Amino acid sequence: MRRGVAEVAKIVGVGKEQIKDWTRLFREYLNKDASPEQRQERQYNDKDILILLYVGYYWEDHPDIESIKIGLNRENYYEDDFIHELYRHTPLLQDEIPEVDEPYRYGVMMSPGVYLEPLEIARSYHSAAGLLWQNAMDSGQPGLECYPMFFAYRHTLELYLKILGCVEENTHNLLKCMELLEEYHQTRIPAKLKEWIETLHRIDPTGTTHRYAPSSTNFCMDENWLDLKHFKFAMDTLFSALDHAVLKSRILQR
Question: Domain locations in the chain?
Answer without folding.
Answer: 5-105, 118-253
